[in-house]
């Protein structure tokens, strides 16, 4: 299977259609027609009018014609479609209107950042890149999730572990939400790195071999979670609820430092037991 599983023009067309179809006329101040609409959401002419562009131009965008909308048009479409901040960024990435670096994404951790991960003990911490590859971790994170040293490097990927690995695929109590949010982030990462062959291959393989991933990927949700809450079913310590915070190093903007802490006293006691095993 080729790694270029989707063309940005076709993704832009599908994204515009799905965001147009999810809007109710009342969301944008339009009157509700008595006659039932044949399709959900707004009509193309309504979005074109709201964005101040021609209906013909919007049709060609939704037909995946090889166009490159200006930054003004992109902003007008984002406003007309009532896009959330992460969706707006995704639209700018798809249309190549957001400034981007030409440097190749790093797949290793700088020594100072690796030392910081160690120094954050006893808080579980790890560094991931834009593909969800796990690049560095401290012992507390390995005890909380899985001993990453036992995995071959190509399996040290948070999405792969959640979807496929027999020990971790049922690790999360609210697995559907965790996978959905992970895919929404991965879609944003793909828009920022559409020519990354490793990322394209990861997404392609997940679509082909995992029904849940394929179903959620088709929703085209886009969201980047900088903090959140997860509940884990740890095989030794039972349920552990954690809050996580994700920080972006200025020197390596394609990497993410994730730090976890217990969400309650029982979870802290479980994490203490894991640390002293």
From TrEMBL:
It holds the Pfam family MLTR_LBD. SMART domains: HTH_XRE. It comes from the Bacteria. GO terms for molecular function: DNA binding. InterPro entries: Cro/C1-type_HTH, Lambda_DNA-bd_dom_sf, MLTR_LBD. PROSITE patterns: HTH_CROC1 (PS50943). Residues 34-88 form the HTH cro/C1-type domain. Coiled coil: none annotated. This is Helix-turn-helix domain-containing protein.
């Amino acid at each position: 299977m080729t790694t270029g599983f989707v063309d940005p023009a076709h993704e832009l067309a599908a994204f515009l259609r799905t965001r147009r179809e999810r809007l109710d006329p009342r969301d944008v101040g339009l009157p509700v027609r008595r006659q039932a609409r044949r399709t959900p959401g707004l009509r193309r002419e309504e979005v074109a009018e709201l964005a101040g562009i021609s209906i013909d131009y919007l049709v060609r965008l939704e037909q995946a014609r090889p166009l490159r909308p200006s930054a003004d048009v992109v902003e007008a479409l984002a406003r007309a479609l009532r896009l959330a901040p992460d969706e707006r960024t995704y639209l700018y990435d798809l249309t190549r209107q957001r400034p981007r670096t030409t440097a190749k994404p790093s797949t290793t951790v700088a020594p100072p950042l690796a030392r910081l991960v160690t120094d954050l003990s006893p808080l579980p911490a790890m560094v991931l890149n834009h593909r969800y590859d796990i690049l560095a971790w401290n012992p507390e994170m390995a005890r909380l999730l899985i001993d990453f040293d036992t995995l071959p490097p190509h399996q040290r990927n948070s999405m792969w572990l959640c979807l496929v690995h027999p020990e971790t695929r049922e690790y999360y109590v609210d697995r559907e939400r965790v996978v959905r949010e992970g895919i929404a982030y991965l879609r944003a990462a793909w828009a920022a790195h559409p020519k990354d062959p490793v990322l394209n291959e990861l997404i392609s393989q997940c679509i082909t071999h995992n029904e849940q991933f394929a179903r959620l990927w088709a929703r085209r949700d886009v969201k980047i979670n900088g903090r959140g809450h997860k509940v884990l079913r740890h095989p030794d310590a039972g349920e552990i609820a954690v809050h996580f915070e994700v920080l972006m190093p200025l020197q390596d903007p394609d990497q993410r430092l994730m730090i976890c802490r217990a969400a309650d006293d029982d979870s802290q006691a479980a994490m203490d037991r894991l640390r002293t095993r």
